[in-house]
Specification:
Layout (H helix, E strand, L loop, with lengths): L2 H17 L2 H12 L3 E7 L3 E7 L4 E5 L4 E2 L2 H7 L8 H12 L3 E6 L3 H30 L3
Helix pairs in contact: 1-2, 1-4, 2-4
């Protein structure tokens, strides 16, 4: 285990104590240890975006708002049942431990990057709506 992994584990322990949500913290720590918390830097502007690879794909996180593109954020965090989702928690652990997977791009690639990220998010949302529609039609008596 590297020094950054040890630091990440220490930070995770702190979050477990403050949130009381050990399972959520464990998932977040695993994301950090597996290098799934990504810092995308665009040069020369030094614009930075963060994503966390989750079960469904890349989730965009904005720690300053705070915001996450995942369903849990929309339903649980915005619904007032939780203070954070595991993607934002993974970001917080990675930030304190200094353990991001980093990728650098030229500024000219920024709009294409945003386009791909948005398309992925919208496709996943559409896939879930299609599945829900199919599930509802399966329950209708024939």
């Amino acid at each position: 285990m590297t020094e950054m992994d040890h630091r990440a584990a220490e930070v995770a322990t702190k979050y477990t104590q403050t949130t009381g949500r050990a399972k959520l913290v464990s998932r977040a720590l695993k994301a950090v240890q597996e290098g799934r918390v990504k810092k995308h830097e665009f040069l020369p502007s030094k614009r930075v975006l963060f994503t966390v690879v989750g079960r469904s794909g890349d989730e965009f996180v904005d720690p300053e708002k705070p915001f996450c593109s995942c369903e849990d954020f929309f339903f649980t965090v915005l619904g007032g049942r939780s203070l954070t989702c595991y993607h934002l928690l993974a970001y917080a652990i990675a930030d304190e431990a200094g353990k991001f997977s980093e990728a650098r791009f030229h500024d000219e690639e920024f709009s294409y990057f945003i386009e791909l990220l948005s398309a992925d998010l919208l496709t996943r949302m559409g896939d879930k709506e299609d599945k829900q529609s199919r599930d509802r039609s399966d329950t209708v008596p024939r």
